[in-house]
Amino acid sequence: MPDDLSLRVTPQPVRRQVEERLRDAIITSRFAPGEHLSDRMLCDLFGVSRGVIREAVRLLEAEGLIHVVPNRGPFVAYLSAAEATQVYEVRAVLEALAGQGFAERASAEEIAELRAVYEELAATRPGSDRLVLLGLKRRFYDVMLRGCRNAYVARMLDQLLNRNSQLRATTLSDPTRLPQTIIEIRRIVEAVERRDRDGAWEACRDHVMQAARVALRILNEQAAMASRAAETAAD
Amino acid sequence: MPDDLSLRVTPQPVRRQVEERLRDAIITSRFAPGEHLSDRMLCDLFGVSRGVIREAVRLLEAEGLIHVVPNRGPFVAYLSAAEATQVYEVRAVLEALAGQGFAERASAEEIAELRAVYEELAATRPGSDRLVLLGLKRRFYDVMLRGCRNAYVARMLDQLLNRNSQLRATTLSDPTRLPQTIIEIRRIVEAVERRDRDGAWEACRDHVMQAARVALRILNEQAAMASRAAETAAD
DNA sequence: GGGCCCAGGATTGACAGACAATTCTACAGG
DNA sequence: CCTGTAGAATTGTCTGTCAATCCTGGGCCC
């Protein structure tokens, strides 16, 4: 089996760069949900040919980040409240599995790395930028998904995290939520340090379920705000 | 929110057909794992242009069915024993979640449908063709993934089932395995009929874990056989 | 004013051809 | 037997073309 630390270099086609940058642009909300990503616009933006753009779009379509309407082209995927509920349901079990795997199989170095990222996260002050927080949390997951020694759970969780990154950025930067998040994550780190597979499972699962609660509350508030705005506009 | 029973018709681009047929060809082993899928060959085979082929390949790459090596093109993905273990680990929790969701949220019609597919499966005789069995089992999953009311678990499980369909076909058609499979599936159906969410979770999880045991045994046998063949060849 | 229809422009979906860069293949030479 | 290299084949990318479809805006009728 090839080692993950393999020194093999592989050329990176232009296509990959476009995939990565476009993915990143969507995740960091530089394109708004529902926005139309027309061929020509992306060609100009990235300075590549239509073929490359279309291939990248197909890949992100399969990842669920882009929704393609026949004869109308690609749009940035939009996550409804109902879908968000489903995403959190799946995330709960996948993160639990990842946490369990990490507790069982991560190296001592990886556990130390996880704690280091946790300490960094715990040291942030409430006013931090959404994207900074999201980036930190992302690093936490990167360590976790690497250490759980299961490329499939890593891939699928990665997709889910990207899919609802917008909502996650919102909940993370909620000032009342952040201290709670830090406590939950500490539980994960501590369970992992004890090599407690069931504890890690529970802590991860609990963390996602708490996040889901906050996310759905925010979604409801937004919906209420939107309907109130609609009423005002109708006056 | 758009109803799943929407009568809306959407045009099907050529691209989609190629995606579906190519996916199907890989799943049903009409292309062997590791086989090289060169542009020109696929162009001739499907009678479409390179652009369409390349877009379809990109989609199946994201689904994990195709592995792309830079400057060497796409290859049918190959599942190692280590990866198979990981796939079964993820499948176990996702199927458990799907089963639980089905027990909670499926309609009475869907539950009846699940039983109907089960009865059909239970009525097969041991000698049946691998692909026939795989198709039946697939219909079982189709009902389950529709009734669990979670599009994300459905999508991810769908990908995983495709990803190791070859191995599944092998284990399913193992004559000693089939009766056991049927018993396990009956447990799922019965739990669902009782609306027993925990029971459905356990039954689904157990089913996957049993399948994993058989699959890994077969993989080991194949490995042993291969090494024996290598010895013979070396004589 | 509101609704309907239609022409024109813009965009998507698909095709063919071209070309540099890379990889594979096979053959000759040490 | 190993090595090196020339030529063929393939990939990655770009450009241009064209039909089909969608959106827009204006004109027309009620």
TrEMBL record, chains A, B:
Record domain HTH gntR-type: where: 12-79
Listed SMART domains: FCD, HTH_GNTR
CDD domains reported in the protein's UniProt record: WHTH_GntR
Keywords, comma-separated and alphabetical: DNA-binding, Transcription, Transcription regulation
Gene3D superfamilies registered for this protein in UniProt: GntR ligand-binding domain-like, Winged helix-like DNA-binding domain superfamily/Winged helix DNA-binding domain
InterPro entries assigned to the protein according to its UniProt record, in alphabetical order: GntR_C, TF_FadR/GntR_C, Tscrpt_reg_HTH_GntR, WH-like_DNA-bd_sf, WH_DNA-bd_sf
Pfam families: FCD (PF07729), GntR (PF00392)
The keyword Transport appears for this protein: no
Keyword Oxidoreductase recorded: no
UniProt name for this protein: GntR family transcriptional regulator
Source organism per UniProt: Plastoroseomonas hellenica
